[in-house]
Design goal:
Elements lengths: L11 H16 L4 H37 L1 H12 L14
Helix pairs in contact: 2-3
Length: about 100
């Protein structure tokens, strides 16, 4: 039966190397599966970071316009908070 085993698998250094590779790939704290999950999570977090950076830039320009332009401030107040001038009537059309 030992004659059927290839000679390379009889070498103790090769056996230790194979055991170490199996251990590192599947059983270690930083195994291959965990590394894949962490890289996928990191990509998702980077996408979220880009999204929030775009939102921050958009909100910053909106704040700048609201602070410096009174017409823009009035338009924003009318749209978001349904404010009106004296004597005006507002008609809200629901979808």
């Amino acid at each position: 039966m030992l004659d059927r085993i290839p000679s390379i698998l009889k070498n103790k250094y090769v056996l230790v190397l194979i055991a170490a590779l199996v251990w590192f790939l599947f059983f270690d704290q930083n195994n291959l599966i965990q590394q894949y999950r962490l890289s996928r999570e990191m990509k998702n977090l980077e996408k979220e970071r880009e999204y929030y950076n775009r939102e921050i830039a958009r909100d910053s320009t909106q704040i700048h316009r609201l602070k410096n332009d009174t017409r823009e401030l009035e338009r924003y107040a009318r749209e978001k908070y349904l404010m009106k001038k004296e004597g005006e009537d507002i008609f809200i059309i629901a979808d």
